[in-house]
Write a structure and sequence with these properties.
By secondary structure, this protein is an alpha/beta fold. 37% of the residues lie in helices and 23% in strands. The two termini are 24 Å apart. Strands 1, 2, 3, 4, 5, 6 and 7 form a seven-stranded mixed beta sheet that branches. The longest helix is centred in the N-terminal third of the chain and has 23 residues.
C-alpha cells in the first residue's frame, strides 16, 4: 500500500482491519479521551464529540512528539482519524456493560426491538476537523434469557457498546439491518473513504 501520513487515533482492532480493507496505509496513535456523556447531550452530539476529541487529541500528540519524518515533510500534511460508535435504544445510549447483569439488561431492551447504531468519523489536522455521522438501524429477533447469559459467558460482549458485536456471535440475533454494516462494526467504509479523499483534496489546495 502507498505510504501516507494518516494516523488512526484508536486501539480498536476492528477499525484497523476495516481501514486496511479499503487500502489505507496508517499508523496507530494512542490517545486518552474520557468517554462520558454530558448532561442533556443528545446521542448524535455525544458520539460526534468523542470522534472529534479523539482526532484532535491525536493531532496534539503528533505535535508534542515532534516526529522528524512528519515535520520535514510539509508537502504532505499529517491527518488523524478518530472514530466512536454508540448503541442507542429509545434515545438512551447503551454503553459497555459493567457486568453480566448489565449485559442482560441491555440485551433485554434490544430483544425483539429496533435500535440505532451511530458511528462518527472525524478527520483532523492542525487547521481543521471534519466529522461525518452515520446512523444504522438494527433489528433484533427475540432473545431468550438463557441465550443472553450464554452469550455473556463467551466473553464477546464484555467490551462492546450495547453489549454485542454484530460481526461475531451476536450476528445470529440480527433479523434486519438498514444502513451501513461496517459502521455497526466500527467504521463506515464508504463514508470514511470519501471523507479521506475530500480532506486530502482540501489539504492540497
Amino acid at each position: 500500500m502507498k505510504q501516507t501520513n494518516m494516523y488512526l487515533a484508536s486501539q480498536s482492532p476492528r477499525r484497523r482491519e476495516l481501514l486496511t480493507q479499503i487500502g489505507v496505509a496508517f499508523s496507530v496513535l494512542s490517545v486518552d479521551v474520557e468517554e462520558q456523556q454530558q448532561v442533556d447531550e443528545l446521542a448524535p452530539d455525544y458520539v460526534s464529540r468523542l470522534a472529534r476529541d479523539k482526532a484532535q487529541a491525536g493531532v496534539a500528540a503528533l505535535n508534542y512528539t515532534n516526529i522528524a519524518e512528519i515535520k520535514t515533510n510539509t508537502a504532505d500534511k499529517q491527518m488523524v482519524l478518530g472514530a466512536d460508535t454508540i448503541v442507542v435504544y429509545a434515545g438512551q445510549v447503551l454503553e459497555k456493560p459493567i457486568d453480566e447483569a448489565d449485559s442482560v439488561r441491555m440485551l433485554s431492551l434490544l430483544s425483539g426491538q429496533e435500535h440505532q447504531v451511530m458511528t462518527a468519523v472525524a478527520l483532523a489536522d492542525e487547521s481543521r476537523c471534519w466529522v461525518e455521522l452515520v446512523t444504522t438501524a438494527v433489528q433484533f429477533r427475540e432473545i431468550s434469557t438463557i441465550e443472553m447469559h450464554d452469550y455473556w459467558r463467551t466473553g464477546e460482549p464484555c467490551d462492546k457498546a450495547g453489549s454485542y458485536a454484530i460481526q461475531g456471535i451476536a450476528g445470529k440475533f440480527v433479523s434486519h439491518i438498514s444502513g451501513s454494516y461496517s459502521a455497526v462494526v466500527g467504521l463506515p467504509l464508504m463514508q470514511t473513504e470519501q471523507l479521506i479523499q475530500a480532506f486530502r483534496a482540501e489539504q492540497n489546495k
